[in-house]
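Q: Got a minute? One more chain.
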Amino acid sequence: MPVKKRTMKRHATGPGIGVAVKNIKKQKLSLSRPETPYTKTPGVVLTLGQGEVGQLGLGPDVLERTRPTVVPNMDNVVDICAGGMHTICLTESGEVITFGCNDEGALGRDTSIEGSETVPGKVELEGRVVQITAGDSHSAALLDNGVVYAWGSFRDSSGTMGLTSNGIEKRPIAMLPGTIVVKIASGADHLVMLSDNGQLYTCGCGEQGQLGRVAERGASRGSRQGMAHLLSPSLVTFKPRHKPEFEDVWAGSYWTYAKEKSKGVIYVFGLNNYNQLGLEDQKRHFHPTVSESFSGKNWVQICGGQHHTIALDSEGATHALGRKEYGRLGLGEDCDDAKAPTPIPALRDKKCMDISCGSIVSFAVTDSGELYAWGMGSNGQLGTGNEDDVYVPQLMKGKQLESRSVLRVSGGGQHTVLLAKPLDK
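A: Always. Here it is, folded:
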């Protein structure tokens, strides 16, 4: 996720969570997220990259790591997510742990004690969490009863928007009471929720079209509808005779992808200035449009950075599209921008199980537990030990990976988070 520069401050926060939700039927969910890139195997958390605000979870004195480093006491984690300058983890028991920058409430917990934001701490939530997401300055969690909680703040070109009409939310608050949600996805500054009846709800910044429900003239906070319309989770609508049902959804920094249920058609909306939506024009799309370049394959995971997209199909093949600079596509130093999903040659003989993007970096995890990284190297996110850009996928190495198999990876604004297990398990 891209990082907006801002002054680092620590805020004291009070106890309690935002909203208690009642009268929602309790039920276990079968998430629409494909099983292939998702693991329920518990593992340890490793981090690398920049850690000036504690996003590595290694304490106040660790400002950088160029090789993967184990985060202490984090050995029962089943999911990870790197935000702009913070990290969120999901434990096997359904608890949420956060660390990193808390200037705008992205940690969802009290960090008034000096240095407490730099070490893992629990977020108090009313139930068992089954999925987590993180953006630039916000975090979200989906509970097993279908309730979505979020905390932190969205941002637009004018600065902080707040998370709701009340402003920044420093504690978890229910985002869509009364609607059962089965999947959530976070862009840099927007949140997408997929309901159990296949409908999409969005909120946050809409300036690039990433909400899919706000026209260009109403996408700024200064429009007639105002910021409340952007921050209130609302349904993405279609023409009366055309109401597709969706089975999966993904978000990149400034865009949204959604997979239609009956035929697997991919709808897109948001920023397309480098064809990262797979559309021929290079303009913003404020309403859902079918991306024909994604036809013909069963897509199980799509992720995106600032100006590029990485996609994984059901055969385990990894594809790239969008902007080429700094090697983020993995197609070689002399490649052109990719206007449609393009298979990455260096991974042709690898079956990938998980993919992720940071702002200008990309990652892929193979079925054998290897982690490949490529893109801009200046933040140390690629694990090469230097700051050189990497133009084709390179196997990440390090002492802490010699005895471990990687399960998942998540790229943040300036750091990378891994989930790994011992090789003998």
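A: Confidence is low (pLDDT under 50) at residues 1-37.
Q: Perfect, thanks.
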